[in-house]
Amino acid sequence: RPPRSTLFPYTTLFRSKRNATKALGDAFIKAYPVPFTSGFTVLYKARTSGKLTLDMIDATGRTLGTQSMNTSNQGEIYFIPFTGLDKLPAGVYFIRYTDGLGKGVIRVSK
After folding, report:
1. Is 44 exposed, middle or buried (0-12, 13-18, 19+ CB in 10 A)?
2. What is the distance between the alpha carbons of residues 50 and 48, in angstroms, rounded to a whole number?
3. What is the phi/psi pair of residue 4, to 5°?
4. pLDDT tens across 97-108, in order?
5. 35 vs 16, 27, 39, 87, 107, CA distance in Å?
6. CA–CA separation, 23 vs 42, rounded Å?
7. Can you tell me the distance from the alpha carbon of 9 to that of 20, in angstroms, rounded to the nearest whole number?
């Protein structure tokens, strides 16, 4: 089960909002690195202020972990790390997101 992790607006990988925005491109949510080995980070550009929920789900539909947070400003970029995943078997996993404007799924693989 992925542990709860610290949520923060920038990492050393993206030293500026401009670089983080460039990494997202036209998307508002993205995971990297994919494929992952021991963990990955979800990069999320808030579409609205409010609650964001991320569920990590395996290919059978079982929820492996959930992280939620409150986003403070539309357009703010957040990095949500999922760590301690080295014991998960290789395969496809899904991150189901729910925010104030809807829900969807992105795919990650190990």
Report:
1. buried
2. 6
3. -65, 145
4. 999 899 999 999
5. 24, 19, 9, 14, 10
6. 12
7. 10
42 CB-contact burial (10 Å; exposed 0-12 / middle 13-18 / buried 19+): buried
Return the structure tokens found at 100.
């104030």
Tokens of 74: 């539309």
Predicted structure pTM score? 0.80
User: Cβ neighbours of residue 68 under 8 Å, at least 6 residues apart?
Assistant: 51, 52, 53, 54
Which residues on neighbouring strands pair with residue 29, listed in sequence order? 44
pLDDT single digits (tens) 10-44: 444 455 667 777 778 888 999 988 999 999 989 99
Is 98 in contact with 53 (CB distance < 8 Å)? yes
